[in-house]
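Customer escalation, tier 2.

The customer says the design service returned an amino acid string that "doesn't look like it belongs to this structure." They asked us to rerun it and document both sides in this ticket. The original structure tokens are below, unchanged.
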């Protein structure tokens, strides 16, 4: 169950996923393979790396890259460069008006006057009845924001100087925010006048790539493996029928297999994450063992990218390198209550950050692993090159279809691209195998949805504030259409797979969970009562209570994380009927239980007994101005001063009393 302590591995055990990357393994080796290390410790921390490491999404990461690196991604040869340009254009980092401006600029030569865009291309722009310029209207403010977002994403040349400014678009006024830029010396009106005289120019890299994308008829980034190629390879091996097998047997020393089905890809992805999630919650061997009627992953020869077979019936523990990876990103830590002399033998326990990770949807979990994978490259001498290869490959996966395969030769001769592909295979993003006589990869649903979920804009994200979507209208909590459809198919199956989870929250605080996974039971047990739950073959009944929810709060879980989990895993029927995914009374009560923890705030104070009312008034005013006064009692002339500022208040008291004695 959740919170079970685990011992540090000895380095033995069965097959398990290899380290996320050679660079990550090298970083772990440089740290002495110490599982206690939670984050990289650098004497000189690069501010740019720190800024990148806090990115909450893929396209936010792109925005924070140095402009030359981002523009080099647009300049990649087809299909990568055009696919990256199109994905950024669809991303939630741009407004709808930004997309229209970029497409118009691409069609009209790549440059246009900023004044014409702000005043003529936006709603409410143009001139008023008396010829008065309306660049400061609501349309003008939208136009400035559109240009700013385009500059920030490396689509426009930085000649306008908007990407480094804060636009104070309040009440529809497109004025610059307070900043220290030199352009503000003349004031807002002068700044606007100078801006209107400049030209907005597409960067050559983006302009060329987006034109190639618009003129390309194929939606796939690479040539797919066709049935003709598979049949031709099968015919060539007809003389040796035993050498071409659906289970990946050797063909002259080289493994060959049938293309994986969509079901195999789904189970492969789920098994990749189950090993990590089971380890986080501390599942025992019984929890890791399947129910016996699940199909084995790789009944068609699945592997983890390194040629090893996987079996979904028994979830294996992650490797030592993966455990170290979990500790380095702060999901696990040494047991603080361990009293043994050898700290290297201390068991690992899940952290509050790990609980938060457990309650997030799989897209957010995958992004956290990809983000740490990218961060691990900072020690490599070819950091930017590897990151460009990894990011462009990941974005191209978002333009593929689940079930379609590609030969590894489509990645070119770059050794970094092929290594990235293998590393992503260990994350469950791609299925690596030998099909039609060549090493091939098949994107999984997680890889496709990771990009699709980042391209769905919400109002809060576009402004650059990283806001959250509304839980009731989907927003960042909602599942993608593909994920919902996959869940519906799982629920309709005669024997639903262990990987599915569909939750219905009732107004009486009962939680109905359609699942057969003990991992999901452990996750729900974080904030639901586990002593009184009822279980049927494919459904479990939990109950939310004040004690169970407050117990989750003590583990570091927040009300927002609980509600987000319930929204992400809501039953598809609730989405199709347009009903609230979580009843309003349940949602409000969880929030109220969370606020109970902050009803009383404990403060460490010092009590000062004043001699008379005059001293009480003088010292009280000084402490109040100093923001050191916690409370004062007039009838007793007592002042309660914050402990951290008590020395300053006492120094003032001595001075005040000295002045009074001299009068």
């Amino acid at each position: 169950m959740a919170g079970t302590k685990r011992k540090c591995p000895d380095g033995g055990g069965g097959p398990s996923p290899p380290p996320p990357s050679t660079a990550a393994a090298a970083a772990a080796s440089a740290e002495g393979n110490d599982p206690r290390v939670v984050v990289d410790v650098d004497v000189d921390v690069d501010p740019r790396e720190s800024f990148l490491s806090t990115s909450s999404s893929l396209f936010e990461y792109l925005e924070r890259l140095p402009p030359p690196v981002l523009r080099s991604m647009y300049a990649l040869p087809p299909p990568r460069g055009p696919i990256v340009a199109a994905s950024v254009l669809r991303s939630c980092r741009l407004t709808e008006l930004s997309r229209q401006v970029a497409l118009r600029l691409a069609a009209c030569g790549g440059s246009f006057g900023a004044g014409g865009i702000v005043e003529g291309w936006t709603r409410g722009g143009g001139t008023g009845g008396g010829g008065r310029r309306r660049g400061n209207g609501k349309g003008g403010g939208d136009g400035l924001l559109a240009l700013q977002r385009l500059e920030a994403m490396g689509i426009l040349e930085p000649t306008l100087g908007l990407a480094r400014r804060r636009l104070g678009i309040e009440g529809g006024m497109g004025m610059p925010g307070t900043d220290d830029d030199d352009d503000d010396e003349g004031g807002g009106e002068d700044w606007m006048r100078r801006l209107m005289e400049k030209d907005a120019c597409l960067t050559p890299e983006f302009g060329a790539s987006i034109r190639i994308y618009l003129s390309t008829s194929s939606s796939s980034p690479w040539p797919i493996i066709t049935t003709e190629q598979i049949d031709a390879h099968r015919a060539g091996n007809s003389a040796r029928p035993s050498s071409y097998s659906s289970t990946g047997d050797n063909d002259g020393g080289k493994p060959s297999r049938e293309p994986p089905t969509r079901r195999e890809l789904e189970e492969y992805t789920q098994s990749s994450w189950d090993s990590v999630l089971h380890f986080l919650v501390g599942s025992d061997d019984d929890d890791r063992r399947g129910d016996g009627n699940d199909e084995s992953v790789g009944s068609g020869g699945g592997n983890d990218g390194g040629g090893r077979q996987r079996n979904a019936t028994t979830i294996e523990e992650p490797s030592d390198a993966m455990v170290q990876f979990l500790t380095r990103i702060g999901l696990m830590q040494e047991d603080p209550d361990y009293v043994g002399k050898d700290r290297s033998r201390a068991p690992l326990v899940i952290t509050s950050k790990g609980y938060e990770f457990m309650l997030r949807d799989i897209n957010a979990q995958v992004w956290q692993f990809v983000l740490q994978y990218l961060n691990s490259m900072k020690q490599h001498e070819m950091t930017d090159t590897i990151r460009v290869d990894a990011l462009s490959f990941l974005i191209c996966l978002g333009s593929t279809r689940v079930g379609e395969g590609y030969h590894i030769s489509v990645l070119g001769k770059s050794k970094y691209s092929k290594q990235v592909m293998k590393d992503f295979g260990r994350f469950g993003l791609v299925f690596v195998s030998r099909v039609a006589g060549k090493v091939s990869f098949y994107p999984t649903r997680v890889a496709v949805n990771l990009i699709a979920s980042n391209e769905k804009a919400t109002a809060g994200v576009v402004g650059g504030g990283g806001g959250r979507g509304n839980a009731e209208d989907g927003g960042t909590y909602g599942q993608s259409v593909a994920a919902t459809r996959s869940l519906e198919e799982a629920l309709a199956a005669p024997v639903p797979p262990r990987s599915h989870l569909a939750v219905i929250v009732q107004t009486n605080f009962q939680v109905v969970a359609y699942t057969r996974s003990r991992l999901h039971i452990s996750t729900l047990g974080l904030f639901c009562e586990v002593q009184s739950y009822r279980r049927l073959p494919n459904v479990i009944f939990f109950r939310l209570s004040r004690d169970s929810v407050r117990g989750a709060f003590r583990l570091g879980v927040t009300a927002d994380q609980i509600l987000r989990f319930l929204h992400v895993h809501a039953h598809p029927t609730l989405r199709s009927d347009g009903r609230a995914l979580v009843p309003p009374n349940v949602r409000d009560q969880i929030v109220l239980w969370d606020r109970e923890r902050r009803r009383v705030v404990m403060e460490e104070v010092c009590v000062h007994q004043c001699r008379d009312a005059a001293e009480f008034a003088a010292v009280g005013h000084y402490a109040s101005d100093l923001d050191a006064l916690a409370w004062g009692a007039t009838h007793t002339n007592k002042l309660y001063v914050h402990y951290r500022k008590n020395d300053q208040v006492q120094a003032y008291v001595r001075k005040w009393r000295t002045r009074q004695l001299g009068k």
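Tier 2 assessment: The sequence is consistent with the input. The chain has a mean pLDDT of 75. The CA atoms of residues 474 and 639 lie 50 Å apart. Sent an explanation to the customer and offered a walkthrough call.
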